[in-house]
Amino acid sequence: QQEKEDLQGKLKLREHLSQTAGKSEATPAPSKNIDLEMKQLPCKLKNSNTETTKQSTTIKSLKNQVQEKEERIRELQAKTSKLERDLTMKRHLIEDLRSHLKANQENEKTSNETLESLERKVKALAEDKKASIDSLKQRLNVAMKEKSQYEQMYHKAKDELEKKDLKLTKLESKMIETECAMTDLETAASQQLHGLAKQSAQTLEILQKELLLTSDKVEEFKTFVKTLTRELHHSVQELRTKIKLAKKMGGIKACKKGLSQECLKLAASILNVSTTDLYEILQEGDDEETAKTKMEFEKDKEWLQHIQKLLEAQFPFASYLMDAILEKLNEKKKLVEEYSSLMKHTV
Q1: Residue 203 pLDDT
Q2: What is the distance between the alpha carbons of residues 41 and 8, in angstroms, rounded to a whole number?
Q3: Which residues form a coiled coil (predicted)?
Q4: 229 assigned to some structural domain
Q5: What does the radius of gyration of the chain's CA atoms come to, in whole angstroms?
Q6: CA 275 – CA 273 distance, rounded (Å)
Q7: How far is CA 136 from CA 30, 124, 149, 161, in A?
């Protein structure tokens, strides 16, 4: 374009020079160089025109290429944005797959552990099965030996049975003979039985009388044991009450020593009771003593029930009954000793 503009400027200069040459002839003729140059200018102008047309066509083609490339770039940008989205999605997918892979690896580890434990169990079961099969084989061998022994025993028994059948036929013939003899014996025995029946009826009457006597004796023995236990129980209770009274008397004496007579009379007059009643009131409310008496009462009750069970029990029960009565007698002995010692101290 710049060359084109230069050439156009030169053409304008030439036209201007030709016009000025026509107006004034007095001006000197142009030089040869200028003529040559003027001749060459149209050619150069043509060349430049052709060059410009070529350049414009190339520019147009280049513009078209640029547009195509821009469109290609847009397409590529759209593809790249799409690929980026796909890439982010694939990254998320990869992360999910990694987490799934980790979980699967952990699951695989646990499954491998369970598989190993199951394999160990299967091996143990196989060994047990093998051992059981071996034991069953041994038992089968033993059973086969026993079977052969039993077969031998069966054959022996069969032979013995045949022999016994022969004996049985002989015995049957003998039985017929004995039956005939038995009928004769039965008639004789029936006569003897009538005589024995009369004798047994008399003996039964005697035995019934003896049985009634023994039952009466047993009842007497039971009444004796019951009265004995009651008497023991009452005597033990009396001793306990005496011991309590002796203890209370000792406490009253100690209370009398501790308190002055005037204070006791004043307290009795206020309560409107006698001095002895006041001592009893002072001694009342002993929870330990009441608990002890309650426990003793329960023990006595259990002892009486034990005696009753022994009397109702089956024979022999004499040793157990003796132990129970001796236990109560020993308790009575201890209470007697305690009471005598208390009475000595109170005196």
Answers
A1: 79
A2: 9
A3: 59-188
A4: yes
A5: 73
A6: 7
A7: 142, 18, 19, 35
Judge whether 324 and 307 are in contact, CB under 8 Å: yes
Range of the domain at 228: 214-282+289-345
- State pLDDT tens for residues 56-68: 888 888 888 888 8
Question: What are the tokens at 291?
Answer: 């608990």
Measured CA distances, 100 to 94, 106, 124, 162 (Å): 9, 10, 35, 86
Residue 43 backbone class (left: φ over 0; alpha: ψ -120 to 50; beta: rest):
alpha
- Number of C-beta neighbours around residue 343 at 10 A: 14
- Write the CA distances from 16 to 11, 30, 45, 81, 280, integer angstroms: 8, 13, 18, 64, 171
The pTM of this model reads 0.35
Does residue 55 sit within a domain? Answer: no
Could you report the per-residue pLDDT of 190-208, keeping only the tens digit for each? 777 777 777 777 778 888 8
Residue 249 has pLDDT above 80, yes or no: no
Give the closest residue to 3 by CA, choosing from 64, 56, 34, 44: 44
How many C-beta atoms lie closer than 10 Å to residue 243's C-beta?
Answer: 17
Q: What percent of the chain has pLDDT over 70?
A: 82
Q: Residue 16 corresponds to which tokens in the numbers above?
A: 């201007």
- Number of domain units in the chain: 1
CB 320 within 8 A of CB 303: no
Please check the confidence at residue 309 and state whether its pLDDT lies above 70. yes
> In the structure encoding, which two tokens stand for residue 96, read together?
């999910």
Nearest-angstrom CA–CA distance, 111 and 117: 10
Instruction: Number of helices (H) and strands (E) in the chain: give both, helices first.
Output: 6, 0
When pLDDT is cut at 50, 70 and 90, the band that residue 347 belongs to is low
* Inside any domain, residue 307: yes
Residues 6+ positions from 255 with CB-CB distance below 8 Å? 279, 282
224, two tokens: 């004796």
Query: Is 328 within 8 Å of 236 (Cβ atoms)?
Result: yes
∠ CA 137-139-145 to the nearest 5 degrees? Answer: 105
| Residue 262 in this model has a pLDDT that exceeds 60 | no
